[in-house]
Predict the structure.
Amino acid sequence: MHRTATFPDIDTGTPEAELVRRAQARDEAALRAIMQANNRRLYRLARGILRSDSEAEDVVQETYVRAFTHLDSFRGESGLSTWLSRIAINEALGRVRSQKPHVELGSVPEATLEAQIIPFPLSSVDPEKSMAQREIQRVVEHAVDELPDVFRMVFIARVMEGMSMEETATLLGVKPETVKTRLHRARTMLRENVEKKIGPVVMNAFPFAGVRCERLTEAVLKRLGIGA
């Protein structure tokens, strides 16, 4: 799991309620802390639905703008990350529905249960470790993209983001048993082509850090009229 960014007057022990209170007051440090703690998760969830880097970034921006302008509606019944994740998923699904009506994550045609993944290519020995890792990462991202929607979202939430069974079920609006079944099917689809060949590298798929993370954070602050 990624670590929360730190700021001069905000540390990783700052209670969530205090962070939200400061964000409601448009405290820049609090807003940055919330965004940099959630950027990767929201990006991965949005991309899991849209399968487009640029559209996923747009969704993350819209998610923060909507959330930060309506923070008074956050009741703390679930964690802030879960609340933000739901907004991002709804925003992404709204975009999909505008192109393909009646798209839902809660159901899937039986025929898709036998969906096949594009075969993992045989790669030659490459002396550059970083190049090999980038290639493996590309294959992972492509294979995950090829999963049917409902399996892809469960895989991203449970495996790539490390969310609990209960949190994933709440986020996607299904029963924990459904999450367990879909995760098993997703892993079965991926195992022969990806898992046994790359191991822990899967955790680095769909990165969202560094310049991209900072660019999105600055864009949201600018839209809210905060900062330089």
Observations:
- Residues 165 and 176 are 6 Å apart (CA to CA).
- The two ends are 31 Å apart (CA to CA).
- The chain has a mean pLDDT of 79.
